Amino acid sequence: MLEDFLQHLEYEKRYSAHTIASYRLDIVQYQSFLAESYDDIAIEESSPPIIRSWMVSMMERELTARTVNRKISSLKSFFRWAKKYRDINTDPTKQLKLPKTSKRLPVYVEEDQMDELGTANFFEDDFEGLRNRLIVELFYQTGIRCSELIDLKTNNIDTQRGTIKVLGKRNKERIIPVGEGVLSLLKHYLALRPAPADSESNAFTFLTAKGLKLYPKLVYRVVNTYLGKVSALRKKSPHVLRHITSMQVNVHSIQFKADSKLIAFIESRLEKLEQFHDKMIGAEVFLKLDKNNQSGNKIAEIKINVPGKDLFAKRQTTSFEESVDAVVEALRRQIKKVKGKRALAY
User: Fold this and answer.
1) Cα–Cα distance between 80 and 92 in angstroms, integer?
2) Measured between alpha carbons, how far is 48 from 60 in angstroms, rounded to an integer?
3) pLDDT of 98-157, one tens digit each?
4) How do the domains of the chain map onto residue ranges?
């Protein structure tokens, strides 16, 4: 039954191999728990008390609430599928109460630290140094995922138009514009790219010095090494760069200093706009105080850049968070209107 469920995720849901592997691990771990604690009963014989006892055992092993919730989420997906496609009448996960998780602020690298990384002589003057710089710059400038970078093919790089085409979650293709600096690095890298060591590596852009396709641990090691030269962050993974690259957000607070909590709030709200338009390039955010209005004196103005057009909205309320929420909602409506016009044009 598990293999049928995983095939459903792969072919119907079009989940990535990494996501499917996580589902497999979570459900296999639950099956192991059943074997050890409940005389190896079948997974379809699960009940709410049994699943709650698994949750308790994970908490006793000091797994975080976030990890426990993820594993239960995998189990919920499995039982929803089983109820729909297999002879299971009830979903034992339906009424489960999950442990509360603490809200974490996004971790990101400061812009001036990235500027230092780009201008200082941190990268070696050889093929690997050039490749490593291009990896960091691509993450920073485009916000692509690690898997998208590793799987980027040479025939999906359009140097004339200055774009790259990547295959993302659920096998969805995205065309991403790249800046002139990254484009210049790409051209230089392709000229120095070593001969592929085998036919499998031939199609892929990023290779090791031995001509083999790049692998995730190497990419993480590259990013960790170079971010470590300019940042003291404990977490220095490619995902850290995505917090400032999915859409580059510049926050300008006029005559006051916005704290990190407010900036993180703004970035999280703007990231949600990418659900409606996946080619947003950047956003300029201006926060101001209206000295002539004591009650609703918090002004938020946001301009976002999408290919061929800039969108703008402004709102004034009693708090910056409320103003930002109102602006984001206004921008969401503008995005839907723009996309609707383009669809009619086609």
Assistant:
1) 10
2) 18
3) 888 765 555 556 666 776 776 667 888 899 999 999 998 888 878 788 889 999 999 999
4) 2-85, 111-242, 248-345
* Interatomic CA distance for residues 91 and 76, integer angstroms: 8
CATH class belonging to 2-85: mainly alpha
Q: Compute CA distances 172 → 2, 21, 169, 278, whole Å.
A: 25, 19, 6, 11
Integer Cα distance of 320 and 299 in angstroms: 7
Structure tokens at 35: 């074997």
pLDDT digits 0-9 by tens, 49-85:
999 999 999 999 989 888 999 999 999 999 999 999 9
CA 85/CA 80 separation, integer angstroms:
9
Is domain 111-242 annotated with CATH 2.40.50.320? no
What whole-number distance in Å separates Cα of residue 101 and Cα of residue 149? Answer: 31
Give the amino acid at 173: E
Q: pLDDT exceeding 90 applies to what percent of the chain? A: 45
Tokens of 142: 């485009």
* Phi, psi for 260 (deg, rounded to 5): -65, -30
In this prediction the pTM is 0.52
- The residues that bridge with 299 in the sheet, in sequence order, are 288, 316
Cα-Cα end-to-end distance for the chain:
44
| Strand duo 248-253 + 282-289: pairing | parallel
At position 153, the amino acid (one-letter code) is: K
In whole angstroms, give the CA distance from residue 168 to residue 289.
41
**Helix, strand or coil, per DSSP, at residue 249:** strand
Helix 127-142 vs helix 180-192: crossing angle, to nearest 10: 150
**Which residues does residue 316 pair with via DSSP β-bridges, in sequence order?**
299
The pLDDT value given to residue 181: 84
Comparing CA positions, the residue from 288, 252, 249, 297 lying closest to residue 269 is 249
Question: What's the CA gap between 330 and 19, in Å, rounded?
Answer: 34
Q: Which fold has domain 248-345?
A: Double Stranded RNA Binding Domain (3.30.160)
User: CB–CB of 245/139 below 8 Å?
Assistant: yes
